[in-house]
Every structure is written in structure tokens, then in C-alpha cells.
Amino acid sequence: MPTSTLAYVTLPSHLRGEATALFSLSRNLGSSIGVSIVMSVLSRSLWINQQQLGERVQASPQMLAGLAGGGDPIALPGAIYEEVSRQAAEIAYVNDFQLLMWINLAAIPLAFMLSNPKLEDI
């Protein structure tokens, strides 16, 4: 709501109908593109992290004792894969939130470009 108010307050009243449609369209397109970018970065990062973690797995007795398989040799590969996938997902989510942080930090200067509305326009 505050962004809508900021977008419309500086416009003359006869242009607010078209501005509403344009603002809604750009917000929906930006959301769709943003979700697509974040999901592609997440899936790519998940795959890369899973490959990098998987190539470094070393089955030590301490690691095997901590897995969910309970020491069952048949369930051991699945338990190792599950743990590697869990850790890769955690790293991928951290990478995604870091990307979102940098995008937001880059967008903060845009808030200072907004003009102050004149009282007669409100």
C-alpha cells in the first residue's frame, strides 16, 4: 500500500486510472520475473552444492553413527544422500537470501529519487 500511495500521489488525478493499470502490470511482471530468477538461482546452487559436497564425503565412524539409517548397511547410501541433499539445500537457501539482500541494497538509492508531493496535488 505505501508504494501505491507513493506512486500515485505525484500524478495528476486524470492520469491515475492509467497509472493504476501500468503499476499493476509492472508489479505482476516484476514478481513473475523475480520468482523465476530466484528459483533458477536456487536450483542451480542446489545442484552445484550437492555435487561439491558429494565428492568430499568420507565415511568416518562418527559420521556413520550420526546418520538417520541407524547403522543399517542397506540404508546407508540413502542416508548419506539425504544428509548431503539437506546440507546442499541449506547452502543454496543462504545463497538465495544473499542475492536478495544485494538486490535490496541496490534498490535503496531508488527511494531517495522519489519526489516530494506538493500539497495542492494531493
Keywords:
122 residues; mainly alpha
Mean pLDDT: 82
Run of helices and strands:
HHHH
Please estimate the helix content: over 70%
Number of strands: 0
What characteristic shape results from the CA principal axes? Answer: rod-shaped
Q: How many distinct helices?
A: 4
Supply the helix-strand structural class: mainly alpha
Task: Describe what you observe in this structure.
The chain has 122 residues and is mostly helical. It has 4 helices and no strands. It has helices at residues 2-9, 16-54, 61-66, 76-111. The two termini are 16 Å apart. It is rod-shaped and about 75 Å long.
Structure described in brief:
The chain has helices spanning 2-9, 16-54, 61-66, 76-111.
